[in-house]
TrEMBL record:
Protein name according to UniProt: Cell envelope biogenesis protein OmpA
GO cellular component, one term: cell outer membrane
One Pfam family from the record: OmpA
PANTHER family for this protein: LIPOPROTEIN YIAD-RELATED (PTHR30329:SF21), STATOR ELEMENT OF FLAGELLAR MOTOR COMPLEX (PTHR30329)
Native species: Adhaeribacter aerolatus
Keyword Membrane annotated: yes
PROSITE patterns per record: OMPA_2
Highest taxon in the source lineage: Bacteria
InterPro entries: 6-blade_b-propeller_TolB-like (IPR011042), Bact_OuterMem_StrucFunc (IPR050330), OMP_bac (IPR006664), OmpA-like (IPR006665), OmpA-like_sf (IPR036737), TPR-like_helical_dom_sf (IPR011990), WD40 (IPR011659)
Stretches assigned to coiled coil: none
This protein's UniProt keywords: Cell outer membrane, Membrane
């Protein structure tokens, strides 16, 4: 009887030992099956449930990870790390309420890390807000390029895309990873566009070879390719990572551990040369991968877990030297890198820097971020938000020349955590611009009434475009145009007898029912009639052009450019306080400073004259020794221009 009892227990221990061996060898796909067989033959245990949950975590399968860690934390004896892993998985699946509860539980269990957990709980609330109000992008899978396995990190090449995939049939004898149970990664090229794609083909040797290859970038002239290659080193190699590929989307196995390297190949006579190693590869100690070149080709950015970084993986930059070699890598610092993971750098057509991070408390998993700057200095970090980001992994973004469409990689809709290619485009919300053309008629000094101007020709231009949409103001001065959210426009108004006027409009429309309102104030082109330039202020006893004054002077610059045949006098006036000589000098210096600024903006010097009138042209009774309010004195302190000549 005892034999009958102990034999299954002994067999179960043997199967558990075999499952643990698979786990230690990074054969997570096989280990999961082995652990599940152990569970089928006995009672669920904390140890086995932890191992299954961890296998799914390492295989980047958040759905199964969340399910199994939910089982784990139901056992007495689970660890704070189990609570953390459950919270992370729940956040990756968009189950933010569960994630917040678990982050709070972790904060209680590990007070030293309470601030980190509380920040992530707050990030969950922010992510829910972003999902509720997504930005105006339309996403869809690139079904013609995606496979049942992983497809990611697209980059433009020739007439299509180069991307990474571990789809079946990439080699006659494709290695299958014990880590994920899937084939090796290779680089593919697909010719076409969103309308039609040809079948993806392997990049030829020597780019693709017996090694795993992926995450590529091309030089600006597409004469060189920089790509990631996997090298296997013994597990006991110096500083070997015990969790080597939770960040690179490649896999390890057996007695070896995989490390990333960057290789460079040049195209000569339409063939790729034998790839050369990036001089800062150091496969015995750390990984270097995910290359990206700045638009001018002078800086190479990459991800690495080399010693001395900010966290698990950081982004570094190497500058091209005068002799064509690459300089010593520099860490991008704390504005970009965190104690977590940063990787997959790319550039937009406007030189905006993009990368993915788990460390900036985003929506969950890898989020895509944008930054402004150059070289090794980057700032103004911003999360691209939903729908470009999701609770899952989002990375490898690629913008087209319009900067409003492109491709990205994400595992947001896959059951097993594998990645797909998505195309995206900005969908602008249509709305209406409602304007009114008016002129201001002076009733008395400092007091004006508004009068509509009818039959004004209004022309609507997209910023940088010379094609105009035209309309005329009605008897009430009213006009309207259909416009799109987020597009910057210039509205130009003109009518004989008036100065042409241009106004910039940057609409923010949330609905097609939104009405964006604007005013078009026109001034008559009467000779020698003063026109006040509003809101020109100077510091006490100073004549320097302040930033707020520069904004108003820029409007006069535009008026001069819109009316290239006029010549003007720009005058400065003071109140009656101080002496006549002082006021004359100060006003002249202020007028000259304003004219100098306008000339610096491209206006010919012979079109504008500076004149300081001091207190000689007061608009009211506030002369010397007259008791006046500050408002009355302010009325006299003004800057004006008048038309001297129309050619």
């Amino acid at each position: 009887m005892l034999i009958g009892v102990f034999t299954p227990v002994s067999a179960q221990k043997k199967e558990l030992k075999a499952a643990n061996a698979l786990y230690q060898q990074f054969h997570y796909a096989k280990a999961v099956d082995a652990y599940k067989k152990v569970l089928e033959k006995g009672q669920p245990t904390l140890e086995v449930s932890q191992k299954i949950a961890d296998c799914y975590r390492l295989m980047n399968n958040p759905k199964e990870t969340e399910f199994w860690y939910a089982q784990v934390i139901g056992f007495t004896g689970h660890t704070a790390k189990d609570i953390w892993n459950y919270a992370e998985a729940a956040r990756k699946n968009g189950n933010y309420a569960k994630a917040q509860q678990s982050y709070s539980a972790y904060a209680q269990a590990v007070p030293a890390e309470a601030a980190v957990a509380e920040n992530l709980a707050a990030a969950c609330t922010r992510a829910q807000d972003w999902l509720a109000k997504p930005l105006a992008y339309e996403l869809k899978k690139v079904t013609a390029l995606n496979s049942d396995n992983a497809d990611f990190s697209p980059t433009y090449y020739q007439e299509g895309l180069v991307f990474t995939s571990n789809r079946p049939g990439t080699e006659k004898k494709a290695e299958v990873s014990g880590w994920t149970g899937k084939p090796d990664f290779k680089l593919f090229y697909a010719k076409g566009n969103d309308s039609t794609w040809q079948a993806p083909e392997l990049l030829p040797e020597p780019i693709n070879n017996k090694f795993q290859n992926g995450s590529a970038a091309f030089s600006p002239d597409q004469g060189a390719i920089y790509f990631t290659r996997i090298n296997k080193v013994k597990k006991k190699t110096k500083k070997a990572n015990t969790d080597p590929f939770s960040w690179v989307k490649f896999q390890g196995g057996n007695e070896y551990i995989n490390r990333l390297e960057i290789f460079i190949s040049e195209k000569k006579e339409e063939k790729w040369t034998e790839p050369k190693a990036f001089p800062y590869n150091k496969v015995a100690e750390y990984s270097v991968g995910h290359p990206a070149l700045s638009p001018d080709g002078n800086y190479l950015y990459f991800a690495s877990d080399m010693p001395g970084g900010q966290g698990e993986t950081d982004i570094y930059v190497s500058q091209k030297q005068a002799d064509g070699t690459w300089g010593k890598p520099e860490n991008l610092g704390q504005n970009i890198n965190t104690p977590g993971k940063e990787m997959f750098p790319t550039f937009g057509p406007d030189s905006t820097f993009y990368f993915s991070s788990e460390g900036h408390n985003g929506m969950g998993g890898l989020d895509i971020y944008a930054a402004e700057g150059s070289g090794s200095t980057w700032s103004k970090l911003r999360n691209l938000r939903a729908p470009l980001n999701s609770p899952q992994d989002d990375f490898g973004i690629l913008f087209d020349k319009t900067n409003e469409a492109g491709y990205l990689s994400s595992n947001r809709e896959t059951a097993d955590g594998s990645d797909d290619l998505y195309t995206f485009k900005l969908v602008r919300v249509p709305c209406n611009l409602a304007g009114k053309a008016i002129e201001k008629i002076q009733v008395k000094p400092g007091v004006f009434r508004e009068a509509p101007v009818e039959n004004v020709l209004l022309q609507l231009f997209k910023e940088g475009d010379t094609t105009a949409v035209k309309a005329f103001s009605d008897a009430n001065g009213v006009f309207s145009f259909p416009i799109l959210d987020g597009v910057q426009y210039v509205v130009k108004g003109s009518k004989p007898g008036y100065l042409t006027r241009s106004v910039t409009v940057a609409p923010n429309c949330e609905s097609t029912l939104d009405m964006i309102k604007m005013g078009m104030v026109l001034n008559r082109n009467t000779l020698n009639k003063p026109i006040i330039i509003e809101n020109i202020y100077y510091d006490l006893d100073k004549y320097d052009i302040r930033p707020d004054a520069a904004v108003e002077l820029d409007k006069l610059v535009r008026t001069l450019k819109d009316n290239p045949t006029i010549k003007i006098e720009l005058s400065s006036h003071t109140d009656s306080r101080h002496s006549h000589s002082y006021n004359n000098l100060l006003s002249q210096m202020r007028a000259e400073a304003a004219v100098k600024y306008i000339i610096s903006k491209g206006i010919a010097a012979d079109r504008i004259t500076a004149k300081g009138y001091g207190e000689t042209r007061l608009l009211n009774k506030c002369a010397d020794n007259v008791n006046c309010s500050e408002a009355d004195h302010q009325l006299n302190r003004r800057t004006e221009f008048k038309i001297l000549k129309v050619n």
